[in-house]
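Before surveying the methods themselves, let us examine one representative protein, written as a sequence plus integers encoding its fold.
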Amino acid sequence: VPRTLSLLQSPLLQGYALKSAFDFLAALVAHGAKPLDFSSLTKRILALADSDGTAASRHSLGVLSQAIAACATEAKAPLRASTVDAFVKQLSAPSESPHKRVLALICLGEIGAKNDLSAHKGLLPAVMAAFDVNEEEYKAAASYALGHVAAGNLSFYLPHLLKEVEAGKHEYLMLSALNELAKSGGASLAAVVPQLLPTLFTFAERDEEGVRNVVAECIGRLAAAAPGPVLPELESRLSHASPNVRSVVVHALRFTLTEEARRAVPPSTLHKFLGALGDEDLKVRRGALLTLNCIAHSRPATLRDPISGGELLPLLYGETAKRPELVHQVDLGPFKHFVDDGLELRKAAFECMDTLLSKPVVRERL
């Protein structure tokens, strides 16, 4: 056990090895033998957050909170409830250090993603109060906690979350909470897609790139969880009048393809999205190139027909050339600076070509 706890502090412990460590700790809690029972283990895990006298990194806090959640899920309900109440109490305790309150928020999120915490009446007010604290890390942790807790009971928390999104007081943070919900909601998300999509597509028209990126990721994860209802909505907006919406749509597919459910996206849908390579807007074309690169990585066989048909490569090659009309001069007092708006497009195009050439199933058609 001491060695396992020591490994939790290492950034090298990831993937299946990290999951195995969580499973080991959960098995110890399920067995319940002292001194390796739930209370003892969680106390030792929490002590790791400042074992050397300094605040742990965000990565370490995430790993420790997942370990706490794995133990809490296997613990008896009264023990789990008392642990949740203790974390909620920490949020309103001014004597607690900021990083301990951040850890409490992340722990609540991880526990809530695996367990229904709607019976804890003080939880939601405490998390919402964190959004008014003038600390960005604290507010980001509150967004993470709210999204994950909502995933544990969608019918209870989702109406409140959507109401907060529409209120606009903490717009970006609430959208980030929706994104966290989409990450951990799993198959249960299919039932709430009709509630989520209209709100998300409303924000897709915003000019703020950060907002659009969060919306695109959230929609992409929804499409991975429920491709049936979401993919047709995305396809129908490929011809939307707003370039911002078209950009969000092509970026959303990229996030869908990074999920385990990427095989649920039919080749015909992928080919329709590749048509965005010919869009008149720069950000839409760049999003299409990034999506093409993702397709080449995850499902290269689906590109054989578009390449053989001759409709894909001319569009890709066209983005590798420098376009004088995209270069403009900016006066900086006595200095002149040239800005090339097509630089990111060319980088993305060459990255696509490099990926395509690395895939034997595609390279033979080039």
The chain has a mean pLDDT of 89.
